[in-house]
Amino acid sequence: MVFKAAIAALAASAQLASAFEKPAAPAQGMRLIKSSEEDPGQWIFKEDKYTMVKSKRGRKHYIDITNIEDDFVLERLSAKNRVAAQKAIEYPDTLGHVDEAQSFISSAGTEGPQLGLKHLTSGTEAANRLFKKVQDLASANAAITVEQFPHSDFDQPSVLARIPGKSENLVIIGAHFDSAAGKPSAAAPGADDNATGMVVVLESFRVLAQGGFEPENTLEFHWYGGEEIGLVGSADVFAHYRAAGKTVLSYVNQDMAGYSPSGTPAIITDYTDSDLNAYVKLLVTEYTGQAPNEDACGYGCSDHASADANGFPAAFLFEDFTNQTSPYIHTVNDTLGTIMWDAVERHIQFSIGYLVEASYL
């Protein structure tokens, strides 16, 4: 164990010794984006980021690193072979709380999520409506806290809810709630990307809050702003958690949960933690009745990349293979009528199972 720790320390120090250096900004008001490990960074104007949000075919992922100053994070974003996230626990290979989790799953459904998707909004209004909704649900348990997490570069605060446990160790599930369709003024209903992920997290929170669940580990439910413009919301949140020295046992991302022609979700295997992925596979198989597929989604494709970059173990359960996902995202056609509610239901079942089981890690 001592030898392994020494090797890990040497690897970490080697990373920091070759820290990523940001290029100088050519003008004020520009943003530094990074689209791969090899990319040294490109300065663009903020408005131009929206034109990089394309439809399914030809879309380009990137991470806005303008505000990231932590050498550890910058180096992980630039390393093909990153050191695995340091984990406080080992994930089990069996599940011990199936009956309890199933009792909560029996209280879940898609009626509330379907109603929620009928009232889609955007921008600051979306953040405020979501905050109010989460506060209303949290009123079932006086111990639950709900806060808005402000961001310096855009006016769409993230929303964080917390069900306290006996331990301060964190089990987190999250989804972004912003949407985009190519320019700031474009109509972007964002039903699948990502109102579905948002309501999966919301329904899981509702069931556990109203059901009076008392976790061993603390559960957090995150809804991020700014994902579509470079993961800036989740980057701020996880940078804060890293600086505060918080212990994150696991983070599971929910981004697009409502379009699955194959009927089987997929575990994303890149920029995620392999040990946590094995645990997620166990959970998906038990709580949805089928083993998930596996796929990769590329550099900076969603908010799990922010958790991973900050050294926290992350996983991402996606709606299907990436080449079978919704053809309507990032367009005006990403509407309620395209949603496959059986897919949303599978994600809700998994999410509740994950939160109950992982609360005992």
From TrEMBL:
Signal sequence coordinates: 1-19
Domain Peptidase M28: 159-349
Keywords: Aminopeptidase, Disulfide bond, Glycoprotein, Hydrolase, Metal-binding, Protease, Signal, Zinc, Zymogen
Top-level taxon of origin: Eukaryota
Enzyme class: hydrolase
GO BP, sorted A to Z: proteolysis
Transmembrane segments: none
Signal is among the record's keywords: yes
Keyword check for Lipid biosynthesis: no
Gene Ontology molecular functions: aminopeptidase activity; metal ion binding; metalloexopeptidase activity
UniProt family annotation: Belongs to the peptidase M28 family. M28E subfamily.
Protein name: Peptide hydrolase
Protein source organism: Emericellopsis cladophorae
